[in-house]
């Protein structure tokens, strides 16, 4: 059973470009979470999605950031017009349905975004 | 609002020592608590998950305890080894269980 997969592992963008980060949850998981880790800081929640629905985006910056989790394919975190302050590690996690009462989150290896 | 604090921020010990990492959280109404390990430039590895009904979990040389009423958890590492050097993070679900709230971590260095 493959774990949470993220790609690319490293992404370099120039200011003003777009960054697209992908996350494939563990098999059987229908919940996806995105977190950001700035240098020397802990992980901060960004957004929580289920298939085709954004459940909680309270941690997302109001502008330039968006996320989706389509019916088919991976979850995408999209950052438009990147700035140097967006440089960070972006982690994706997935979990089972809440109905199972089992809400342990499993984390992917992260995508390290560097904005030049 | 759930806030998680980890003490100490950094710890350096000689190989072989037993050590304790501390985690505190402000809202005791949690479903569970997780301890993770993060190596430099790497992702998170889940070490232990303690459900709210449990008081401790053990895995090899690691033992994690949970005291919900006081909002505290400890991670005990026995007979530390240089390979244990990493940042250790604790996390609890937020009040609405939509996300995990992380501490800033304890950076552990075990010297040979």
Overview of this protein structure:
The complex is a heterodimer of chains A (116) and B (112). Chain A is mainly β. Helices cover 0% and strands 48% of the residues of chain A. Chain A has strands at residues 5-7, 10-13, 19-24, 31-37, 43-50, 53-56, 65-68, 75-79, 88-95, 106-107, 111-115. In chain A, strands 2, 4, 5, 6, 9, 10 and 11 form a 7-stranded mixed sheet that branches. In chain A, strands 1-3-8-7 form a 4-stranded antiparallel sheet, with no helix packed on it. The radius of gyration of chain A is 14 Å and the shape is globular. Chain B is mainly beta. Chain B has strands at 4-7, 10-14, 19-25, 32-38, 44-51, 56-59, 62-67, 72-77, 86-93, 100-102, 106-111. Chain B starts with a strand and ends with a strand. The relative contact order of chain B is 0.34. The chains are: A mainly beta (116), B mainly beta (112). At the A-B interface, strand 5 and strand 10 of A face strand 4, strand 5, strand 9 and strand 10 of B.
